[in-house]
Design goal:
The protein is 18% helix and 29% strand. It has 696 residues and is α+β, with helices and mostly antiparallel strands. A six-stranded antiparallel sheet has the order 1-2-3-4-6-5, with helices on one face. Strands 19-18-17-38 form a four-stranded antiparallel sheet, with no helix packed on it. A four-stranded antiparallel sheet has the order 20-21-22-23. Helix 6 runs antiparallel to helix 9 and helix 9 packs antiparallel against helix 10. The two termini are 39 Å apart.
Length: 696
Amino acid sequence: MQLDKIGRYEIKAELGRGGMATVYRGYDPRFEREVAIKFLPPELIHADPQFRLRFEREAKIIAQLEHPSIVPVYDVGEENGQPYFVMRYMGGGSLSERIKAGLFSIEDAVKILEQIAPGMDEAHSKGIVHRDLKPGNILFTNKNVALISDFGIAKFTQGEAGNMTGSAIIGTPAYMAPEQAGGDVSVDGRVDIYALGVILYEMVTGKQPYKADTPLAVAIKHMTEPVPRILEANPNLPVWMEKVISTAMAKDRDDRFSTAVEMVETIKAFMRGETLPATLKAEKATLKVSPYNKTTVVQPTAEKTFVAKKKSRSPLFVIAGLFVLTVLGGGAYLLGSTLLPIMNGAPTATVAATEATSAPIVINFTETPSIVETATETAISVTETASLPTLPVIGGADKIAFLRNNDIWVMNVDTTDPRQLTTDGIAKFNLEWLPDGNTILYMSGKTVKTVDIETLREEVVFNFISAEYFEAFSVSPDGTQVAIVANRELFIVPFDLDKLRAANKKSALLDMKGCLFYKDLAVKGAKWSDDGTRLAIKYIANVNEKFADAVRIMDVTKCSTIPPARIDDFPNGRFNFANEIVNFDYDGDLLFFLNSNRRNGGFGDLVFYNSFTHKFENLAPFEGNCCYRDATFSPDGTYVIFAFQDIRLGGESPTNLYFLPADTLNQPRTLEPLPLPEGFFTRRDDAPMPALRPAK
């Protein structure tokens, strides 16, 4: 069937097709962004109403998984009786594609694991197991941020009415934990930990740990053979990597890491040179409080097909239970077990197998019909938020704080409910939301204040009276640290309000004994990465015997003991750049900043720099016309908000705010500003300095 539209969404191309759904690349004209649309074809609805139930069950699962590490769903709907999901379009490809391109450094590998681990733990804490975690289901944004996708064959560990996976053993054999391949119905989040171990092995060696001629043989190796020596696959790896992999891929799930974050933190500890025990086996006395240990153990009866796993279960017992392994869409497989039904006198199973591109496989047990979905390997996948939030969410943000006539305003991202928070008319700058989501922090002169968006209560946080310059006060994403730039020196100290209120000079900051870095550079500004491990600073550099602004990205994870490690400097001769960077924003991967072309109160050209590829681009969404300022990434990095003043209209031209998809800024099209009242920004030098609140 050739589709042109689904709902309001324009269909551009087909991205992938599996036994359960078809995924399209689409365009949302309302928000001017590309999307992915997962659509249940009509032939499946007509073939069996259970397919609709299965599709809706997926919505039930992903409805509980609103998390920054999981591919978000924007919309759900129905077109001519056919349900669909509208998802974020993941333009950065999959991890499987990147593995094919070459080996990962340990640093790059752990960064990916670090990005997805909180999302996996969140799913497990809600009793949801992915069961098909693999490189093809780890997708990247255009900014190289990894997200988890495709919960289509996930299961609830705490029991669910009408479990439609029934007794089916499903997953991808190359990443399948032994208990999963063996048909254990009590699988929990530790099957995903096992898969993470396999993924890590593959990233740092370029190959999967087990190879065989058939998928069945691969599954058997996961159950029976020891974990291959990773140092034989890549002798350049440190010895401790062997310990990490063997722990993650332990045959007995009780011997694995309890959480994905625990696995990541163990790797980071080794990278820091910390000495850990020879075995990484955790104390299982704490397992009962682990989020993974929420499995409801079902006691077997005479009629049940499977029994819970026993530690003494022999490999031959398990192998005997694998009677069929059928390929599903995208490399996932279904394994069925007959041994226990025969032993217990239960009815045997009959299997109707089909090709990957045809209808989903149906396994008909006499007791309970079970439907098994094909797991797709497409570059786009689904997670869901069942009920839409009260506030509109675009780019991961729900509110905008900004300045108008030197006072702070706040409004929803769709410009509804604009409210003025301050009334003193005193110059302000460097707006930012504190992690509580209700407080805006800002600078005014040499004073830092906060204002509560509900009570309008203002409080002084910091007053650095001795500073010759006071240019930055930026709180870390977790609210534990603050980067202060005073006297062209950088201080990173605890965000302790009592001590900060008492600190009015350099010596007081030194006494706070934080992570400290100063004097080496003439610093003018600071921005945290999203995870708080890196800091981008603006400083005065000597470029070709001329002084000009530059940006340095630093690793601050060890700065309490050693100076921060330099990651990158730019422009650093990579492109022409002169004098002053008016403003910049850092999201951990990419940066926006403005050059010295200050035609009107800080308005200038918009330049984009990728700190991974070292590529830059002059962005010209308005046919190359000037002027821009205050460019800021949205929380998820997909949008950019900025102010624009059309230089063609002269010095009295109005200022407007624009909130646009980041990857479309250079596309020729008519751009509409945020729909604020005409003449909302009345002053020639209005500097809105917008700050976006991450949606909760």
